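S.,

Sequence below, as promised.
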Amino acid sequence: MAKWKSGRVDRMRVKGSKDSYRLTEKLPGGATCQSCGSTVQEGRWTWTVPAEGAASATCPACRRVADDYPAGYLMLEGSFFGENRGEIMNLVRNVAKAEKSEHPMERIMAIRKDGETTLITTTGVHIARRLGDSLKRSYRGDLKVNYEDGEKRIRVSWCR
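The prediction came back faster than expected:
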């Protein structure tokens, strides 16, 4: 009886689509980020207690913040947003807090207000998408999502 490989084999590999912020190899014995305190064990960053004698490293999210190189952009705009900015930003912060507690590499990098619009930059594509989906679900409005660089970057726009 033949064994089948698990996973998809029909995906096309795109040249130059390597994410320079992902670890290429597992750190021996785990490591702890010196900036945020997250730990990597068996190739995954978590909020677990570091192992005894864990090496020191910088996690991909902290490297993105230091380099000011976001993976996600969320643009908030519209008259409804302007009138309800405080309430909407509370929702954004609560969703971001929940996402960060489960996934240490998904964080808000910066929130920049420019007149009637607000730009939120994130360390990962998933948090930007989750924030946009939460806004759409809670307040309706118009949500646009655009993946770039072979799904390594995302631009989300919400307007109401």
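The helical segments are 60-67, 79-83, 85-102, 125-139.

Coffee later?
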